[in-house]
Specification:
Order of helices and strands: HHHEHEHHHHEEHH
Number of helices: 10
Mean pLDDT: 86
Strand order of the largest sheet: 1-2-3-4
Largest sheet: 4 strands, antiparallel
Distance between the termini: 11 Å
Number of strands: 4
Length: about 425
């Protein structure tokens, strides 16, 4: 299957630059990047759980033992023993204790619980990466849609200005006709009203241009700025789609499908990890350091202490909680599978609908082209017949209105074709490579 890239699909240089700016400065995109960082941090934590946890510490304390406590009696008795050296005598007023060393704990992953938890975190990182790809795809299509909306509005302004010029000439002609008695004031007012209506439509189009430019500036994370753009539609993307073969093959590259697939894998790993929690856990702990009640003897080799301890524990009264957790994880896995199926089904229907819509809209474009050509001839004929007194002013007005409406309808059909292509670009994966 041919790869779908932005550069191949959107060949307009202004649009390519605009998309790059949106990717670099859009705030939603930056928030998504931080969320991806969080997913990577969780993955590092899961990887670290497979390794021993080692802590270094230093501790000092002083305790006053009561005269009638076991520790107090023991310390007093020890000081009277002839078997100890002077350095081994204990301060019985305040008995100090100094400790410096390392403490380590390690849960041995006998049943793969920690490995499955790490796998779940890995799959969720991949899902988050696909989420970022989906966000980039949405930003790309939104940017392209607004860009071609601007191109459409620019062309609409040109069409309206052209028709305003024609209507002004028609108004001048009918005013002359009125002076020589061949037209009435009613005709003059009808032509003037048509001209004013077209001029009002022109201002509405200019306002829509300003709104679209503001939306594109918002996507770029800035307050204002000029939007550089071409003055024609880029239709090369349609030729590129022809090379793609069966569009359904590209569904596997859609970020939303891949994100749901990785989430399905993660929920499966979650279920396996919870199932492994039913089995005994082997915990190994150890410490090694220097310990003494005499500060002068702390770094003496004779103060070296060490201990290693291993324990095997199994859940007894927590079985109900574990079973509940396993049922929940199993249900979540089934829900993830259903969401995956739902996403694939929805994606297939989107592509199928858009391909059909593109073909039907192409037929509309062909017919609209013929319509505008016919109405253009009808305007010329109506003007000639009016001058020759074979047609009245209402026929000219009707012909001009029909021509303007047809020109705008054809323009919107071209815009719709571009919007369909943009949506198809997103439906086929949105720029994977």
């Amino acid at each position: 299957v041919a790869q779908l890239k932005i550069e191949d699909f959107f060949t307009d240089a202004h649009l390519q630059e605009l998309i790059r700016k949106v990717w670099a400065h859009n705030l939603d995109h930056q928030i998504g990047a931080r969320q991806l960082d969080i997913a990577h941090a969780y993955l590092k934590a899961r990887k670290g759980a497979l390794l021993p946890a080692v802590q270094a510490g230093i501790k000092a304390s002083g305790t006053r033992y009561g005269k009638y406590t076991m520790e107090g009696v023991g310390n007093f008795d020890t000081n009277l023993s002839p078997n100890i050296e002077d350095g081994q005598r204990i301060n019985t007023t305040i008995s100090p204790d100094y400790w410096l060393g390392l403490n380590a704990t390690w849960e041995v992953d006998l049943w793969g619980k920690l490995a499955q938890m790490k796998k779940a975190a890995q799959q969720r990182v991949l899902s988050s990466e696909q989420g970022m790809a989906l966000l980039r795809s949405a930003l790309t299509t939104q940017t392209a849609a607004l860009y071609y909306e601007l191109v459409t509005l620019d062309i609409e302004v040109e069409i309206l200005q052209e028709h305003i010029g024609l209507q002004q000439k028609a108004l001048e002609v009918v005013e002359v006709q009125k002076e020589v008695g061949r037209a009435t004031e009613l005709a003059v007012q009808q032509f003037k009203a048509q001209l004013l209506n077209t001029q009002a439509t022109l201002f509405e189009a200019k306002q829509q241009i300003l709104a679209a430019e503001n939306q594109l500036n918002l996507l770029q994370g800035r307050y204002e700025g000029e939007i550089s753009r071409s003055h024609s539609f880029d239709v090369k993307g349609l030729a590129h789609l022809v090379k793609l073969g069966n569009p359904n093959q590209l569904l596997t590259y859609r970020p939303d499908i891949m994100a749901d697939y990785y989430e399905l894998q993660a929920t499966q790993a979650d279920a396996k990890a919870i199932r492994a929690a039913f089995f005994p856990t082997l915990q190994v702990s150890a410490y090694m350091g220097l310990s003494s009640f005499n500060p002068e003897k702390v770094f003496n080799p004779a103060s070296l202490v060490a201990q290693m301890l291993g324990g095997l524990t199994a859940p007894v009264f927590a079985q109900h909680q574990l079973r509940t957790g396993f049922k929940v994880a199993k249900a979540q896995q089934e829900m993830a599978f259903m969401r995956y199926q739902q996403t694939v089904n929805r994606a297939f229907q989107q592509v199928k609908t858009l391909v059909s819509e593109m073909e039907n809209n192409r037929q509309v474009l062909d017919l609209k082209k013929l319509e505008t050509e016919a109405l253009s001839r009808s305007v010329d004929i109506a003007n000639e017949m009016y001058v020759a007194a074979y047609a009245n002013y209402l026929e000219i007005i009707a012909a001009q209105k029909s021509k303007l409406a047809a020109d705008l309808d054809r323009l919107r059909a071209r815009r719709n074709q571009m919007q369909i292509m943009i949506q198809l670009y997103k439906a086929l994966g949105g720029g994977w490579s």
